[in-house]
Amino acid sequence: MVYGFVIHTVGATLDETPNSSRVLYSKVFNYELIDQKQNLDEQCLQNERIKRKQHITIVARQAESMCLLSRQASGRPASEFIVHPTDEPISLLEEDVGVFSLSPGDLFTCEKIVLWVSVYSLGFSLICDSQENLTLAECTLRTVVKYLVDSLKLLTNSSNVVLKADKIEMSLDKFMPHGQLLFLNHQATQALEKELISSMPL
């Protein structure tokens, strides 16, 4: 089960502090059900939502830190990570993808696994339960990132993530409905992408 999905900034240069990461978009799956199960009053629910946002921010900062370390270790020049040079589809290298775990009690009551993908100035993180199929989770995250970046042109302007939040939401509902990961072959993925393109407003 996927707990949440986050899009955040990644330092444009290797010497930027990781704590500069900003959350541009986040989605916690089935949070209404989580709140209902806790059976809390309105004030407690509000406090829980604030705490949830704080947790998402911490995850984004940790993911950015891991990303910058990976970039530094790759030996690639910082200039390669600043802008998307062409309109060609993105290609992800090994150092653009990573994973780390959050022990029980760090942020969540149960252990969580965070998979991240970095694309120039943007980072994408998937927060999963520890029992989740990580191979499937990584494959899904790669697919979602490539679709969002290539189809929604998120790299064109940093504000595009905020302006296209509704389209990002629709995309997530297709690729991981209610936080469930889907086994999709290439043909099924293409069918989903075509369905999204036809259903999205211009």
UniProtKB/TrEMBL annotation:
GO biological process per UniProt: double-strand break repair via homologous recombination; endosomal transport
Transmembrane annotation, as ranges: none
Family annotation (Pfam families): AP-5_subunit_s1
InterPro entries: AP-5_subunit_s1
Gene Ontology cellular-component terms listed: AP-type membrane coat adaptor complex; cytosol; late endosome; lysosome
PANTHER family: AP-5 COMPLEX SUBUNIT SIGMA-1 (PTHR16120)
Protein name: AP-5 complex subunit sigma-1
